[in-house]
Amino acid sequence: MSPNVVVLGLIVAVSPLPVLAEVLSMAESGRVRPAVALALGYATALGAIAVAAVAVGDRASASASGASTATALLDVVAGLALVVVAHRTRRRAQRDPAAGLPGWISRVGSMSVVPAFALGVFLPPYVVAVAAGNEIVRQGLSGDLAWVQAAMFVAVACLGVVTPIVVVVTSPAGADARLASWRRWLERHWQGVASVILVVAGAYLATKGVVELVRD
After folding, report:
1. What is the pTM of this model?
2. CA neighbor of 194 nearest in space, from 39, 10, 17
3. HSE (CB half, 13 Å, CA atoms) of 212?
């Protein structure tokens, strides 16, 4: 298992906006099913990226110099893009911690299962997820090994959206108080957390890409 795939999966997992959506869904509606649907949509989107990466890896050899250079360049570009987004997110957070909340946040609690699933499809941090797929391609694996990497990435990346559901379902006593506490903290700090995560992810990808270019 590539450590880079695990690291990128963890970066996706700690992305605060999807977790905030899950917490709001359960806190406002008092129901778990829409939150589960959102998590399934999230996993479906990430799974599609992982499956595409395995398919591309089957067609192209990551050991070939051309493919290796392309994957390294993609890492550099993705890393720089994340740093730019992090800078903009940080500036918004400094101006007004609550100003950056998306408009759809207010509707999460009233969503039924189908809209919640659709929202989950759009919530993953796609730049990081594609970078993880790029890393799977770069490994040049085929068959079961490639699918294991893909499955592991999706499982790790979904920890953030699954954990609140598991906690609420397995410990219903005091769930309302926990959800309210999580909601207050996430609404106040999600932009700051997101900017830090984006900087770390961007620096990680850009550095990895440069190292791979030099090595190749």
Report:
1. 0.86
2. 17
3. 26
